[in-house]
Design a protein that fits this description.
The protein is of the alpha/beta class. It folds into 2 domains: 226 residues, Spore Coat Polysaccharide Biosynthesis Protein SpsA, Chain A, CATH 3.90.550; 252 residues, Spore Coat Polysaccharide Biosynthesis Protein SpsA, Chain A. Helix content is 35%, strand content 21%. Strands 12, 13, 14, 15, 16, 17, 18, 21, 22 and 23 form a 10-stranded mixed sheet that branches. Strands 1, 2, 3, 4, 5, 6, 7, 8 and 9 form a 9-stranded mixed sheet that branches. Strands 10-11 form a two-stranded antiparallel ribbon. α1 crosses α2. The longest helix has 22 residues. It starts with 9 loop residues before the first helix and ends in a 20-residue tail after the last helix. InterPro entries: Glyco_trans_2-like (IPR001173), Nucleotide-diphossugar_trans (IPR029044). This is Glycosyltransferase family 2 protein. It comes from Halomonas dongshanensis.
C-alpha cells in the first residue's frame, strides 16, 4: 500500500530499505516498521490538520537553490480594499496580515499594488509609508472605484507583469506560495490559471478547513466554484474577460472569481490546458459569508455554450444542478443484466427496473449465464412474456463478466449501453432520465450513479484511481445524509472511473475503445479499465448524485475465497498495474495530498 514501494518486488523493497538505512544512518528494520505502520494511519481533515501541517507540510521547505531557480517568475499581487470597509482600524489589521504574508514570501513578489479608497489612503499614509520601506515592491494607489469589480479593472491597469494574483484585505499567501506557483508555471507554459490548494483562518489566525482540489474538473466547476480564491492568472487572459454579468454582484469577490473561471472555460472550451493545479496550500483566506446562489451566473454561462440547458439549485447551498437537454427523439437504452440462478436476487432487481424507471424507452437484456435453477428459469420465461421490453439471451460459457457484457452489447439495439448488476434496485424513478441526459452529451463517456448499501450507507460515490494500489470507491460507508469532502457526495463531477454496477455509455464509445477486456480482465477491474480507455480516448467520465440506487454488492458472484479465484485476482491486478500503473497513482480527479490507503478523503 505504501506509495514508495508500489510495483516493487520483495528484493527491490529490501534494497530500497537498506539504501534508506545507510543514507539516514538508521536500521532498515526501523524504517520498514515506520512505513508499514503509516499505511494504517488515517489523518482526518477535521481532527488532524494541525498534525499534518507539522508532520508533512513543514518538511516540504524548498532549498535556496530551488527558490533561486524560479527567480524569472514575475507576478503582480493586486490587493484591493473595497469601499465597504469603513473601519480604519479593522482595515489596518487586515492589511497588516496580507502585507506581512507578501514580505515573508520565499520567492519575492515582483510587484504589489494596493488600491485604497481615497479617504483611507489619507488616514493610513504614514503607516503605509513604513510598509513601503519594508516591502519595496509595494505601490499604493488611491481609488474612487465604487465596487470590487471596478477596483479589479483598475488594478489590472496597474499590473506590469505576466502573472497576477488578487487578494482581499486579511487574506494571506502561504510562505512558499509564489515559489510553488512558479514551479508549476514552468512545467505548464500554456497555462492561463494556476489553481492552488487553500485553507481558512479563524479569528485567532488558526488554519482549518483545507481545500485539496482536483485538477481541472469541468462538470464540478459547473456544480460549484471549487477553484476558490487561490488562483494566479495570466494578466493577458484577464484583460480579455468581459465582466458582462458582474453588475449583478459587483461587490462580491466570490462571484467575480467564479465569473472569471467560467469565462476562461468558454475561451478554451475544448481544452483543459488553460488550467494547472498547484498541489500545495498556497493561500489562507479569511472566513467570509458565502453567496447562497450562483444559479443565474452558471445559467448565463451555459446559455452562451448550448441552448436548452437548465440550471437550478443543487443539493447544497452555493451549488447548482445542471440539466442537459434530452435528445429528440429519445435514444433507446439497452440495459444489460448478467445473471446465473439466484432468482431471489434477480427478481427484485428486474421488477424494480421495470416498475421504478420513468424513462421507458429501454430494452432489458437479461444475459443468462448457464442458470439451472428451476425457479430462476421459470421467472425468466414469465418476465419475458410479461413485458415486451425484456429479452433473455443465453451465454453458455464459463463465467467471464467482460465477455458476457460484450456479447450483450453486440446484441443490443440501443444507441446507449447500460451495464447493470443483477443486485441493483432503483430508489426513485428519475435515475435513468438523469443518466441518459448526461451520457448523450458528445464530450461525456461513461456515466455512473450514486449507489447505497441496503443499510443506507454509501457504496459508490465514484471511483478514485490508486486507492489500495488499484482503485477504490470514493466516500464508501459514509452516511446517506453526509455531504462528503468539499461537498463532493452531492454534486455532479468528472471522475476517472465509475463502477459498472450501474454505468451508461454510448454504444459508439463502447465500440470505439473495444468494449470490456475479456482476455485479461474476466472478473475484476474491467470497469476501471473501460473507463480509463474512454478517458484516454478524449471523453470525460461523469458521476451524478441525481441517480440513486441500492446495490447489494457482489452477492451473486461471491467472495474471492478459493486459490483459483485468488490467482485470477492477482493476475488481473498485475495486468492493471502493468498497463495503467502511472495513471493509477495520479488521479486528476483526486489530490496528491489525500490518502491512497483509505476511501474517506483523509490526509496522506
Amino acid at each position: 500500500m505504501h506509495r514508495h514501494y508500489r510495483d516493487m518486488t520483495q528484493k527491490q523493497v529490501m534494497l530500497s530499505l537498506k539504501q534508506q538505512g545507510r543514507t539516514q544512518s538508521r536500521s532498515w528494520q526501523a524504517i520498514a516498521l515506520e512505513d508499514y505502520d503509516s499505511t494504517f494511519l488515517s489523518m482526518s481533515i477535521k481532527r488532524h490538520y494541525q498534525k499534518w501541517i507539522r508532520l508533512i507540510e513543514q518538511r516540504r521547505v524548498p532549498s535556496e537553490h530551488d527558490i533561486r531557480s524560479q527567480s524569472r517568475f514575475a507576478c503582480s499581487i493586486l490587493l484591493a480594499a473595497g469601499p465597504s470597509i469603513n473601519n480604519e482600524e479593522v482595515l489596518k489589521a487586515q492589511l497588516n496580515q496580507s502585507l506581512a504574508s507578501l514580505a515573508e514570501q520565499s520567492l519575492a513578489p515582483t510587484q504589489a499594488v494596493l488600491l485604497l479608497p481615497s479617504e483611507a489612503n489619507v488616514g493610513l499614509q504614514e503607516w503605509l509609508a513604513e510598509w513601503q520601506r519594508e516591502l519595496t515592491c509595494l505601490q499604493v494607489v488611491a481609488s474612487d472605484a465604487a465596487s470590487i469589480a471596478a477596483l479589479r479593472v483598475e488594478a489590472l491597469s496597474q499590473a506590469e507583469w505576466d502573472w497576477v494574483w488578487f487578494l482581499q484585505p486579511g487574506d494571506r499567501l502561504a510562505n512558499h506560495a509564489l515559489y510553488h506557483a512558479a514551479n508549476i508555471a514552468k512545467d505548464h507554459p500554456e497555462a492561463q490559471a494556476l489553481v492552488a490548494d487553500e485553507d481558512s483562518l479563524d479569528a485567532q489566525g488558526i488554519r482549518h478547513s483545507p481545500l485539496f482540489k482536483p485538477d481541472y474538473n469541468a462538470d464540478l466547476l459547473l456544480s460549484m466554484p471549487y477553484m476558490g480564491r487561490a488562483v494566479c492568472y495570466r494578466r493577458e487572459c484577464l484583460t480579455r474577460l468581459s465582466f458582462e454579468v458582474v453588475d449583478q454582484r459587483a461587490d462580491d469577490a466570490n462571484w467575480l472569481d467564479y465569473a472569471q473561471a467560467l469565462e476562461l472555460t468558454r475561451q478554451d472550451a475544448f481544452s483543459s490546458s488553460w488550467y494547472a493545479h498547484v498541489p500545495h496550500i498556497a493561500y489562507h483566506g479569511m472566513q467570509r459569508e458565502a453567496l447562497d446562489n450562483y444559479v443565474s451566473l452558471v445559467q448565463h454561462h451555459l446559455d452562451q455554450v448550448q441552448a436548452g440547458v437548465w440550471v437550478g439549485d443543487g443539493l447544497l447551498p452555493g451549488t447548482q444542478r445542471v440539466r442537459w437537454p434530452m435528445p429528440d427523439p429519445q435514444p433507446l437504452v439497452s440495459l444489460l443484466v448478467p445473471t446465473r440462478d439466484g432468482v431471489d436476487i434477480l427478481r427484485p432487481c428486474v421488477d424494480a427496473l421495470l416498475e421504478r424507471t420513468d424513462y421507458t424507452h429501454f430494452e432489458l437484456l437479461i444475459l443468462d449465464n448457464q442458470s439451472t435453477c428451476v425457479e430462476t428459469l421459470a421467472y425468466l420465461r414469465e418476465v419475458e412474456a410479461r413485458d415486451g421490453r425484456v429479452k433473455v439471451l443465453r451465454w453458455d460459457h464459463p463465467f467471464n463478466y467482460s465477455a458476457i457484457n460484450n456479447f450483450g452489447a453486440a446484441q443490443a439495439k440501443g444507441s446507449i449501453i447500460g451495464l447493470i448488476n443483477n443486485d441493483i434496485e432503483p430508489m426513485e424513478g428519475t435515475w435513468l432520465t438523469e443518466m441518459v441526459e448526461q451520457v448523450s452529451r458528445p464530450e461525456i463517456g461513461c456515466v455512473g450513479a450514486k449507489l447505497y448499501y441496503p443499510n443506507e450507507t454509501v457504496q459508490h460515490g465514484g471511483v478514485i484511481l490508486g486507492l489500495g494500489g488499484m482503485a477504490g470507491h470514493a466516500h464508501r460507508f459514509f452516511q446517506r445524509e453526509e455531504d462528503g469532502y468539499m461537498g463532493r457526495l452531492k454534486v455532479t463531477q468528472n471522475l476517472s472511473a465509475v463502477t459498472a454496477a450501474c454505468l451508461l455509455v454510448r454504444k459508439s464509445v463502447f465500440d470505439e475503445v473495444g468494449g470490456l477486456n475479456e482476455a485479461s480482465l474476466a472478473v475484476a477491474y474491467n470497469d476501471v479499465d473501460l473507463c480509463i480507455k474512454v478517458r484516454e480516448a478524449g471523453y470525460r467520465n461523469l458521476w451524478t448524485p441525481y441517480a440513486v440506487l441500492y446495490h447489494h454488492e457482489s452477492i451473486s458472484r461471491g467472495a474471492d475465497d478459493t486459490p483459483e479465484k485468488r490467482a485470477r485476482w492477482l493476475s488481473e491486478y498485475a495486468y492493471m498495474r502493468k498497463t495503467w500503473g502511472e495513471l493509477l497513482d495520479s488521479d486528476p480527479a483526486y489530490n496528491p495530498n489525500l490518502t491512497l490507503v483509505h476511501e474517506d478523503f483523509s490526509l496522506r
